[in-house]
Automatic annotation (TrEMBL):
Family: Belongs to the carbohydrate kinase PfkB family.
InterPro entries xrefs: Carb_kinase_PfkB-like, Carboh/pur_kinase_PfkB_CS, LOG_fam, PfkB_dom, Ribokinase-like
Source lineage: Eukaryota, Viridiplantae, Chlorophyta, core chlorophytes, Trebouxiophyceae
Recorded GO MF terms: kinase activity
Keyword NADP: no
Protein name: Carbohydrate kinase PfkB domain-containing protein
Keyword list, A-Z: Kinase, Transferase
Transmembrane helix found in the keyword field: no
Bias kind Low complexity: ranges: 1-25
Organism: Chlorella vulgaris
Location of the Carbohydrate kinase PfkB domain: 220-484
Chain residue ranges for the region called Disordered: 1-27
Coiled-coil regions, chain positions: none
Gene3D superfamilies: 3.40.1190.20, 3.40.50.450
Amino acid sequence: MADSTPQGAGEGPSSSAAQSAAQQPDLTAHVERLEARAKALERLLVGKVEWAQMETAQHLQLLEAAVDNLEGTAKEAAARHGELLLAAKWLALELRGLDLLADHVKAVDALSKKLEAQVQEPFKAQQSCSSYETEMADDGFQDAVAAAVAPPLAEVAHDALASQQNTEAAQVQIVSLQPVAIVDHVCVLDEEALRSLVPDELGGSHRVELAEVQRTLTSVGEYFSKAGGSAANTTRGLAGLGVHTKLLGCRGFDEWGTLFSSSMKRAGVDVSGVLVKQGPTGRSCILSCGGQRTMRTCLSGCPRINPDELRADDFRGVPWVFLSAYCLYTPNLLERALDLAGAAGCSVAMDLASFEVVRSFHPAITALLERGAIDVCFCNEDEAAEVAGGAGSCPEAAIEYLAQHCKRLAVVTLGEKGCLIKERGSEEVIGLPACSGVKVTDTTGAGDLFAAGFLYGLLKGYPARRCGELGCIAGGAVVQTLGAEMGRDQWSWLHQRMHGRLAGEVVRDSAAAVQREMLACYSLIERKGRGVVYYGSARLKQDSPHWDRAVQLGRDVAQLLGCTTWSGGGPGMMEAATIGALSVGKPVGGIRIQREAGTTVRTASYLPADSQVFCRYLSSRKVALVDSGVRMKESDHTAYLFLPGGLGTMDELFEILTLVQLKKLGSSHPVPVVLIDYDGFYSGLLQFLRACDANGTVGAPELRDLIVAQDNAGVLQVLRSYYNLPSDGASHQPAASVYRASAYIRLGGDEQAAGSAGL
């Protein structure tokens, strides 16, 4: 007991210190564990947020695809509704015919009863028969029958013709093959962000797994998704140019496959040849930095179209087939496509895809070329060098090799330096510059859209140089936006470069159906060339006193100016002027409407088949006719000539005068507008313009561009004076009074004084 107290007093302090020292490491370790756990929770939370962002993006894409599908369903329902309406019209016509037949039977039955009652009175019976025959032959009765039958007949005939035109327009012009459907995820990064995502060499395309695609998408932030792939991009570009295209291939049974099909369908591509199989759709991250792209693509487990799934029907009757060397990754697919295309008589265009593809399949590609299986070959300078013998080959040497083995021609694109074109058998290598004034945003799809523009030119029968120009324009348009799908502004820019400023404005502001018609019109105008546009009544036929003069005017003006004679392609004054131009072997063109005013059905055509376009929409026709007379170069000889006409002619006259007044005609140089006042036909109009001036609604100076000529000699005098053309030495009939409408109004309607004032 005595020893215990001192011992306890001595050991207490040292024992507490020891315990504290022992507990200190435990607390530190505990804090470290808590911090580690907090960091782990933080990483987990960040991962969940990133995953949620990706899931949200995917659901948004799925929602977009669902909306597209609903739009497609609505369009199909609308088309079915139209078919039902047409069937209803046919049924109504049949019922109307049955009603008329029943009335006719009743009339015959009534006459039979009369004849039976009067059989004893031959004279009366004969008189009764004659009366009935007279009644049946009466113009009023026949007119009544015609009035009952003609409207539904005309309407059904119009619908049938429109349906036939739509069917003809729906004939596939180009079939493209893309074995695997791909969805592009496009985003813009600065170089620092790009290098943090891509540790290896920037640029080019590399295959990755799905996890890498997902990791990249969660890191880049904002991106957008569109249908992609080389052949799909070219096909979509052709559809945008108004070409009926069909895509063959395969997509996965997932939301990305739905997006691919709906995106292509919305662009106007026929995707009935795109198969749907179990598995994922291909996906590619396109990282754009400074206009250049780095691609990371996942095709793991993606379903493909097999060679035996290509059908001969897909190629039959199709002028062109477009193939990509990417098809070589699917064994025997390219050979099968070439066999079917050859059997169907199709021309074949092939893109060499990438220099990696050429390097991997060099023997197969050279074998295809050297056996003459390819009509047109597209490649960039790296691919050309690889196929022609390695990196040491220059583009000029490479194109010599390619042109020697292609059946028609070879094209080498040079990026910002333009392109080279060489036709087989020609000594000339055509070198074209790239489009100027282009701000490059992203080069994705530049080569694909170049091919689309070039093929569009081939389909239209343009020479190789013009095809190359169109390819450069299309490639220059797509690099101004992100990804390979152009928006309205890019299409407007493209058509402005192709056809002029007016075309760009029309395409930007037009609905899709009108836009397709406009593209067909502008294509015809480009092929035939701008010239003199005639306006006039469709009702003034060969019995009109103006007919012969209009024929003579068309002949004389065509010989004087040598340009294309344009009109609405309808009957009457338009036909007369066109016949005159045709009689002296000059080119003609017509922008026709389904049914002219004053007619009940589409009139027969006097125009060559390749010199006319039909429009369902009057707006398309009016704009195209205006553009047919636009004067793009000072050396162009164009004019707007107004023969006697009615409301439609007046509408077009005032529209042109308004466009001139507002400087919206789209012409780089002034164009003569001539009112042809045969026998004072337009005297009432001129008096109306005087009244407008007197009331302050139109000022005389605003009508300075309207020239009045009272006969053909006056029209020729105006054109010679306007274009400073020498006389041909023949004795010309003196012109009647020729004057400006502004002078006529200013001088109180005195034609002689206005004529003396000069032009």
